[in-house]
Design a protein that fits this description.
Helices cover 33% and strands 20% of the residues. By secondary structure, it is α/β, with parallel strands linked by helices. The chain is globular and about 40 Å long.
Length: 171
C-alpha cells in the first residue's frame, strides 16, 4: 500500500512538473506570476554536457518553497538566478543517484548561513534498495554524528533536517 501511495505521489509530482510552463532566467527576472511556478535549475544527466543536472524549484506565489532533486549545478543556478532559498523547507528526491542529489549539502549550507531563524528541512524520497540507502539513511549519512557533513548542523540549529523514506511509518 505504501509503495502504491509513493508511486501515486511521484506520478502526481511528475505530472505537475510536466504540465507547468518552463521558465528561463530571462522570463523569470521579467515576470513574477502568482500561483504556482516551476523553475528548471538543471535538466542534464549524469554526464558533463555543459548544463546543470536535474533539479527544479517550485515557487508558490513567487516564493521558492519546494526543491525537487538537487543535481550538480543546482546551487550555482540558484545563485545565477538570484533566487532566495529562505522559505525552502521541503526537498523531494526522486531517487538517490548523484545527478539528482549531489548539491543537497550546498543547498542546506546556503540556508544555514543566510538564516537567522531555525531551519527545518523535510527530505522525502525512496526507501532503500540494493546498494542505495533509504532517504532517511542517506540524510543521516550526510549530516548526523560521524556523517560526511557532521559539522554543518552546528550552523544556527541542531538537526535541521528530517529524512523521510517511502517505507517509513510516518510517510
Amino acid at each position: 500500500m505504501e509503495t502504491m501511495k509513493w508511486k501515486f505521489t511521484a506520478a502526481l509530482v511528475l505530472t505537475l512538473l510536466a504540465s507547468l510552463p518552463l521558465l528561463t532566467a530571462q522570463s523569470h527576472a521579467a515576470h513574477r506570476a502568482s500561483g504556482l511556478e516551476l523553475i528548471v535549475l538543471g535538466s542534464g544527466g549524469p554526464r558533463s554536457f555543459g548544463r546543470a543536472s536535474t533539479s527544479y524549484l517550485i515557487l508558490m506565489e513567487g516564493v521558492p518553497r519546494v526543491l525537487v532533486d538537487a543535481g550538480p549545478g543546482a546551487f550555482q543556478a540558484v545563485g545565477k538566478l538570484g533566487l532566495n532559498l529562505d522559505r525552502v523547507d521541503i526537498v523531494l528526491l526522486t531517487h538517490l543517484h548523484i545527478d539528482h542529489s549531489a548539491d543537497l549539502p550546498a543547498i542546506f549550507l546556503d540556508r544555514s548561513l543566510t538564516s537567522d531563524v531555525p531551519i527545518h528541512f523535510q527530505v522525502f524520497g525512496p526507501e532503500g534498495s540494493g546498494l542505495f540507502p533509504s532517504t532517511s539513511q542517506f540524510v543521516h549519512l550526510l549530516f548526523d554524528h560521524s556523517g560526511a557533513y557532521e559539522y554543518q548542523k552546528t550552523f544556527y540549529v541542531k538537526r535541521p533536517y528530517q529524512g523521510i523514506s517511502e517505507g517509513d511509518p510516518a510517510s
